[in-house]
Amino acid sequence: MPELRLRVAETTDLTPVVRRLVLRDANGSPLPAYEPGAHIVVTTPAGHRRSYSLVDAGGARPREYVVCVRREAGGRGGSVSMHDDVVAGTDLVVSAPANRFPLEPAPRYLFIAGGVGITPIRAMVRRLRGAGRTGVRLLYLTRSARETPFLEEFDGPEDTVHHSADRGQLDLWPYLAVPDDDVRVYCCGPAALTRTVRTLTAHWRVSRVHLEEFATGHSGMASPFTAVWAPDGRRVDVPAHLSLLAALRRDGVRVESSCEAGVCGTCRLTLLDGEVEHRDSVLTEGERVSSVVACVSRARSPEIVVGPHEDRKPA
Ligand code: FES
Fold first, then answer.
1. pLDDT tops 80 at residue 277
2. Is 270 found in the same domain as 199?
3. Of the chain's two ends, which shows fewer C-beta atoms within 10 Å, N or C?
């Protein structure tokens, strides 16, 4: 993926933990095009590679890329570096935009955003409403008004902003009970939200439902498990604070990686046995049956059996 060196032109705190960063070319040159749903991979000053959705509507010759970074104090350090080490004037290496969550044409839309999952959804809603479209319904779920980036933008007749601290979880069933081929559902947010939407849309046509689970540090939510490395049967303990990728490497298994954020697929392994909680944004549902992305995904079962992926087996 081609890389660019961009300068942070502005930073703004949208909430106590979400910071907006504007990146531009230092000479003011236009940047590579992107469409709503696109993301860039940023190398943080501390050396992590993290994927961030572009929050604006995109176009052919954008002058800037705008991303929002939620500080994950218990995460793996990437977001903390983006908050603590980046100021206006910092130069960052970023990838050209890629898009695994593209906005497909439809007569109407239902967007469901959870927390900072609003970022790609905002790009889509702005693109559609900017073109004068109606039938662009938004459900935006956050804990409280104080923790809601871009709150002031979503007060229209087709917007529902729901704060769980005030009113508990929003029941999504009334919005999803009746499948409609004229509607595309887009959902971006934490794993629990995308799982719920996947379950509640099981009776929808698969092509009408688009889910994007954003990667977080997951610290504190992870359970330890054992990974069996199939080629030699070695048993690798994966503690809660280590990724599968890191644990395999610690025990001498060579696994290639690149983004370490679940977006490039370089660290994909073959899944031979066990149940996985998939946290990547790269595998299709079909691929998830027999693959696991080692940098972000974890076992649901006490033990999983993995091996090199077909593409990466030694000749
Ligand atoms: S290294 Fe990119 S998906 Fe794991």
1. yes
2. no
3. C
Nearest ligand 1 atom, CA 264? 2
What is the residue range of 75's domain?
Answer: 3-95
Ligand 1 pocket test, pick from 214, 257, 283 with the greatest ligand atom count within 8 Å of Cβ, gives 257
Residue-wise pLDDT for 50-61, tens only, equals: 889 999 999 999
What's the alpha-carbon Rg for the chain, to the nearest Å?
Answer: 20
Give residue ranges with CB within 6 A of ligand 1. Answer: 257-260, 262-267, 280, 282, 293, 295
Instruction: Look at 234 and 216; give whichever has higher pLDDT.
Output: 234
> Does one domain contain both 208 and 238?
no
Enumerate the β-bridge partners of residue 159: 138
According to the model, what pLDDT value does residue 313 have? 56
